[in-house]
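PROTEIN FOLDING TASK:
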Amino acid sequence: MGLATNLNLVIMLTLSLKPRMQMRGFFRVAAKPFVLQSARQESLGMISFCTPAKGRLHYLRQTYIHNLRAAREAGIPVEFVLLDYDCPDGMTDWARNNLWEFADMLSLYKLTEHRPHYYIPVADNCAMKLASGEIVSNLMADVMVTAKYFREVYDLIVTDRNRLVRPTRQTPPSTTGLMTLWKQRFLAIGGYDEELKGWGYQDVDFRHRCEAMKMELVYWTPTEAQAIPHGDELRVQFAAVKETPSESNLANIERSKKNVKKKRLIANEGKQWGVAAVEKIPL
């Protein structure tokens, strides 16, 4: 059944839903095996580039159309997932007015609940779960990449389900979060750890857990991505933490290293994660 316009969706980590909810487009992620059931069928071999954003319209104006055009030039099966995470700056209106020519490759979503705070791993998990592709990738609002990047990442990941495509140590600042893997793997590892607060280390923790689970790490070329420079004040603009970015980063490092050392490699185990009430917005 097709998804009606502005139909509310709920991302839920649960084992059962009423049939009426399933008919209306609600979807679930089962615990074992990890299978996404949604009103839109996943596409074999398609890669979804996921961008949750709150208060980042200034950057999206500079990066997003560039990235859409570069992906189209790359000629890969692609979906862009753009999630308005309760933005205060009119992001959804901007997207509808300026991104309509990319309607064939863009899925626009908007929270239907008020969330004054922005927790990076929660927002990333929500966007990844909304993806229709079998492969998922982070693409932050302040990052621009090239057509070569899209093609390279796709070629590196599509033939091997046990890979994590990640940046090298020579990657430009603020692009270390650009990681790609098969969605089934992402769900199986529990996504990003939602206990990591503030800013910093969420992506490194994710990589370390993937590596500890014997996934193969492969790398995209560092010259193919760049980020718009900005200060720490923007990174924690909507964070509900009192610590500075450096302080929260240190706390996150400590938690991550302890979990990996004790082989606690599946994040968010035993709880709902990546949960949000959203609606799909037509372009």
